[in-house]
């Protein structure tokens, strides 16, 4: 297993317009003991699922700075880790575990939904929803909270022209489309589609990040 630092959740492209990406499988852990190292970190979180990247941020003397990053193979494992490890007592320290890039106020896990299929919209042939007409005050935290009730979210990307939410399954995307298209928030009526409403260059840039 290769243990390498995860990429930054904030990236930019050639057009220099900011792109905010939240990977729901990437966790930020802080208030960890100074004795924590990468091997101990992996042992601590491995019971929740396959880990693809792990890093303890160290000081010059190789002791921990008090925070670390853990990336799981999928967002379901990460959600379990947040639920069971946030607030856990490790070597006398109460650790804090959350999705990297989100504040602690964002729910750590989604409500459970029936796996029975719903009447899927013909627009949806994959798990990605495109959202436009967002209020200017919209943040990644708010966007995740807005779409999290409908199922497990794997990734969120926010861009100037549009944003998109990638669900773990099509059924969750269908529910979100049904309940959030036309949803009124801060005087704005959200436009949520299963197809690509954004300018083609914006969609291409976002798609490249999501598939990387």
TrEMBL record:
<keyword id="KW-0694">RNA-binding</keyword>
<dbReference type="GO" id="GO:0009535">
    <property type="term" value="C:chloroplast thylakoid membrane"/>
</dbReference>
<feature type="domain" description="RRM">
    <location>
        <begin position="25"/>
        <end position="102"/>
    </location>
</feature>
<dbReference type="GO" id="GO:0003729">
    <property type="term" value="F:mRNA binding"/>
</dbReference>
<dbReference type="InterPro" id="IPR035979">
    <property type="entry name" value="RBD_domain_sf"/>
</dbReference>
<dbReference type="InterPro" id="IPR050502">
    <property type="entry name" value="Euk_RNA-bind_prot"/>
</dbReference>
<protein>
    <recommendedName>
        <fullName>RRM domain-containing protein</fullName>
    </recommendedName>
</protein>
<dbReference type="InterPro" id="IPR000504">
    <property type="entry name" value="RRM_dom"/>
</dbReference>
<dbReference type="InterPro" id="IPR012677">
    <property type="entry name" value="Nucleotide-bd_a/b_plait_sf"/>
</dbReference>
<dbReference type="Pfam" id="PF00076">
    <property type="entry name" value="RRM_1"/>
</dbReference>
<dbReference type="GO" id="GO:1901259">
    <property type="term" value="P:chloroplast rRNA processing"/>
</dbReference>
<feature type="domain" description="RRM">
    <location>
        <begin position="127"/>
        <end position="197"/>
    </location>
</feature>
């Amino acid at each position: 297993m290769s243990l390498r630092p995860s990429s930054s959740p904030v990236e930019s492209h050639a057009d220099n317009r900011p792109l905010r990406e939240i990977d729901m499988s990437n966790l930020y852990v802080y208030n960890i003991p100074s004795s924590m190292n990468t091997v101990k970190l992996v042992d601590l979180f491995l019971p929740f699922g396959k880990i693809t990247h792990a890093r303890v941020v160290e000081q010059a003397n190789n002791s921990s700075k008090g925070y670390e990053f853990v990336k799981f193979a999928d967002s379901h494992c990460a959600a379990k880790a947040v639920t069971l490890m946030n607030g856990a007592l490790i070597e006398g320290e109460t650790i804090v575990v959350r999705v990297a890039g989100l504040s602690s106020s964002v729910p750590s896990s989604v409500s459970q939904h029936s796996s029975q299929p719903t009447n899927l919209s013909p627009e949806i042939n994959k798990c990605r929803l495109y959202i436009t007409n967002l209020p200017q005050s919209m943040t990644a935290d708010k966007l995740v909270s807005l779409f999290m009730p409908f199922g497990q979210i794997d990734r969120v990307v926010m861009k100037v022209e549009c944003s998109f939410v990638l669900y773990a399954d099509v059924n969750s995307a269908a529910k979100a489309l049904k309940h959030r298209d036309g949803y009124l928030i801060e005087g704005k009526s959200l436009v949520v589609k299963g197809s690509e409403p954004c300018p083609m260059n914006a969609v291409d840039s976002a798609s490249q990040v999501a598939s990387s």
